Structures are given as structure tokens and as C-alpha cells.
């Protein structure tokens, strides 16, 4: 049985991770998937394509009740196959990503592959008030009938009329919540005047709040406490703004630090303006080839750094898709900067996030033979969700999938005719409003024979036409990649490279 209450929105990353358990032809057959969809009240005919794509689309399009039933059936299939105890042929990275995705949705997937939701115990829930009772917050004003009889006792002595212990603790917690955030913001500012004024306001709020709790003053006094806290927060924000402006205008030594000139002719000294958009993406998928026959993703193009930095600063969802015979998401990151108020703290958080993504790319490795680049792009398109950027770092020479470059004549094929022949698959990518960046296409490594300049251009033009026909905005970056090939035991079939034809005719003698 499914847990007490699945999240209403089971789509997104949960659907993506769950469907990926059957990517690459593993496990369920299409007939078994049809039965599951029918059991959940869905029409199997509405969901076409590969098995994992059908499951992902079904989970996204289902109602909460239908999605809960389908999730339960899929998890039961995984449990029966031994996916959670290492007996199945499903790679452990997919199981790990599945657990992380459920956790982000607020559900725990235990070691036996069952979903758990923590439901508060009924014993700990507060008893409902009796009929006619008046519910008061801790420290709030008493009913008028009580105030009239208590007014004299409040003035009788220093300890008269104070709150009971439990209500006092609740009042202290309320006061801490009111002044806690302004205090943290004040500590992050570098302006001395803001620290002094803000501290005075916070101290005043603390003292007034403490007396209010002790003497049980009316709610309008709490309003004054809140106003003091807001004033302290505003002063701290103003201090942060002035300190950052002052450091820019009053510190010429910082601006005179040696930097690469903007007009430098070096290819890597300035990011490509197309890869560094004025509007940062809200989601970014990095599709990286980890298969044989192309350089390993060891040294990434510097043009990519600007796009990655802008995506992190925009708090975008970022994923790394490793391309082999069965592409999968090997890294997912969402950086939140809202809780960091200091500029140095934000810079450190963004730098750490960028390093984590780069490290995830370098540590990705193949776990199956072949290279299915089209399936990797489909996975990335599902991740960005119709609006974002997909960056592809690959040779562009897959040996399996919708576009198989090992088929005879592919290096000389007409790109437009090829795109027309796979139009249905291109439509399923849903690349409208998505930018696709092709980086270092055409660069190979042993045992793949190198391509001639004309053949390399043909590979770039073929993929550009394919993704343009799917509705994407395509950007080509020809940064060279000459690193060593990946250290992997999994193989990828080389693309046959025709030798250039040499003319054997003898020019006529004069």
C-alpha cells in the first residue's frame, strides 16, 4: 500500500528518477507498462516512446490518486526485482538518485524500498477547545471580563500577575523569533553606524518584549516590539548597501588589480556572449559524454564558466547527465542564496556549488556499452522542463539510439533530410524555448579515427539542423578538446571514416 499521503505533485524530479530505473531497456516490457497504466486508470495509448519516457509522461499527467497507484506498483516491481538489496541489474547510482528525489518531495524511501511519511502522533496533538472557549495566543490580551478583575493585581507588586511558566516560555520563543532575523542581518553588515543603531533597536525590542511578557501588557505593546525589530532590520540593510557601494567607490586599489583585458585576442580570456546570456537560465542541464571514442571531460571549456556561474547566481536547478549506452543523471544541485546576507558568504557558496558541479562532471563514468546521445538530450529536456539551457559536451558520434552515426553514409548525409526522417522523435524532445549549446563536437580519441575538418563540420551541421528542427536555439562552440580518453572497460563502436578520394587522372600535356 502507498503511504498515508503522497505529495499531490508527484511529477518533476520524482517522476524522472523513478522512470529512469527502466532506462536502457531494463526490466519491464511495454505490455507490463500498459497493464500498470490501465490499473492506475490511465490510457496506455496516450503515452508513447521509450519505456522510461512513457512512465515519466504518465506520472506527470496523472491525477494524485492515479500517480500514487502507479508509484506503488512501480516500487513493488523494483522490490520484487531486488533493486533495493543489490540483486537487480539496475545501477546503484539510479537507486541513490531515486532516494534523493523522493526525499526532496518530502517522502522517505527506506532500505526495503517502501515509502514512509512521518505522521504526527495523535497523542501529541493539543486537545480541541471546549465549546464557547476563547483561544488566546501566549502573551495576547485577555478577555475584557478577566482584564477588569486582574488590573489591580498587576499593580500589587513586582511579581503579581506574571504569566505561568509555560506561557512565559511561549512568549520568549515569540520574542526570539521577532528579533532573531534582524540580529543576524546586523551581524553581517560592515557599516559601524548600522551595527550601533541596529544593536540599540534590538536591545530596546528585547527589553520591551521581556517586560511585556512579565507584566502581561496588551497586544499593542507587542506591535511596538515588532516595529523596533523591523527598524533594526531596515538599518542593517541600509548598512549593507552603503558598505558595498563605499567599497566600490572608495577603494581604488581593488579596481586596479590585474585582470585580463576585455579586448584580449585569446579565445579563453573572455566568455562567449552567447554562452553568457543576459537572462540567466532558470534550469541548466549539462550533457557530458563519458563513453569511449572521445576525450574525457577533464578540462572543461572556460566559456562554460560564465553560464554556470550565472545559473548558480539565479538559484537555478542544475543537473549533470552522463551519456553512455544508458544515459542517466549523476548530479543534481539547487543552490539557495537567500539565507546568506554577506557578499563574501554568497561568493563562497557560489564557488563551492560550481566546484561541486565540475567535480561531478569529472567523476562521472560509463556503466554500459555504447553512446546514446539522443536519449541523453531527451533526459536533459525533461529536466529543464520546457524553459532553460542544455549544454552538450560530446563528440557527436553516438553508436546507438534514434541517431546512430555508425550507420553507413551518416557523415555525408543530408542534415535536413535526416531531421525530417526522425521528426516524430524530435517533436517528443519539446525543445521549444530551450537553448542548446554544442561544445567541442567532432573531437575524437582512440579507437575512433580522427575526423577531417570537413567531416567535423558535417557532424556539427547535422546536430545543429536536428536540434533547430526540434525548435531549439542552437549555439555552437568549437573549443578544442584534446584530453586523454575516458578510463573505461565499456566499449563504443567507432564511426567508419571514409578516406578522401584522390584524383587519378593525368592532366593533358601541352
H and E string: HHHHHEEHHHHHEHEEHHEHHEHE
Number of separate strands: 8
Structural class: alpha/beta
What is the subunit organization of this protein?
A: single chain
Can you count the helices? 16
Task: Average the pLDDT over all residues and give the rounded result.
Answer: 77
Query: What value does the Rg take, in angstroms?
Result: 31 Å
Shape: globular
Spatial arrangement of strands, main beta sheet:
5-4-3-6-7-8
Level of helix content?
Answer: 40-55%
State the separation between the terminal residues, measured CA to CA: 92 Å
Work out the strand percent.
Answer: 5-15%
| Major sheet characteristics | 6 strands, mixed
Uncertain regions: pLDDT < 50 for 5+ in a row? 120-163, 244-273
Q: Your description of this structure?
A:
With 510 residues, the protein is an alpha/beta fold. The protein is built from 16 helices and 8 strands. The strands form 2 sheets. Strands 5-4-3-6-7-8 form a 6-stranded mixed beta sheet, with helices on both faces. Strands 1-2 form a two-stranded antiparallel ribbon. Helix 11 links the parallel strand 3 and strand 4. The radius of gyration is 31 Å and the shape is globular. The chain starts with 12 loop residues before the first helix and ends in a 33-residue tail after the last strand. The relative contact order is 0.09. About 15% of the residues have low confidence.
